[in-house]
Amino acid sequence: MGTLVFSCPRTWRVIEPGIETDDATLARLQPYSIKVECPYCNSPHELPIKDGHLFKMRPRRSQIHSTALLCDEIDVGALVQRTLSAAQPDQS
Questions:
Q1: How many C-beta atoms lie closer than 10 Å to residue 61's C-beta?
Q2: In this structure, how many other beta carbons lie within 10 angstroms of the beta carbon of residue 54?
Q3: Per-residue pLDDT of the chain (92 residues; tens, 9 = 90+)
Q4: CA 23, CA 26: separation in Å to the nearest integer?
Q5: Nearest 5°: CA angle at 87, between 84 and 54?
Q6: DSSP secondary-structure letter at 90?
Q7: Average pLDDT of the chain?
Q8: Strands annotated E in 8-56
Q9: What whole-number distance in Å separates Cα of residue 24 and Cα of residue 7?
Q10: 2-7 and 14-21 beta bridge pairing
Q11: pTM of the prediction?
């Protein structure tokens, strides 16, 4: 299970529409899109499911605070880079 996240096409900030799913369900939903109201640019976006990223929390041990397990944060840089490279026309 993971959380489906997208990036705002105007601000490139991460949008979390609140959808929890798994890889198999996400694969079946690829042809569809969802409409969300963006909290960053206050505009509605129709986002193709195939442009989303399934973020899965990975536990790790804290080296600073305690020996408790923490969860990694979203690699926003990779998400933005993937979105930008998909949006750029082929230069070949």
A1: 9
A2: 17
A3: 888 899 999 998 999 888 888 889 989 999 999 999 999 999 999 999 999 988 887 665 555 555 444 445 455 556 666 766 666 665 55
A4: 5
A5: 65
A6: P
A7: 78
A8: 14-21, 33-37, 44-48, 53-55
A9: 22
A10: antiparallel
A11: 0.59
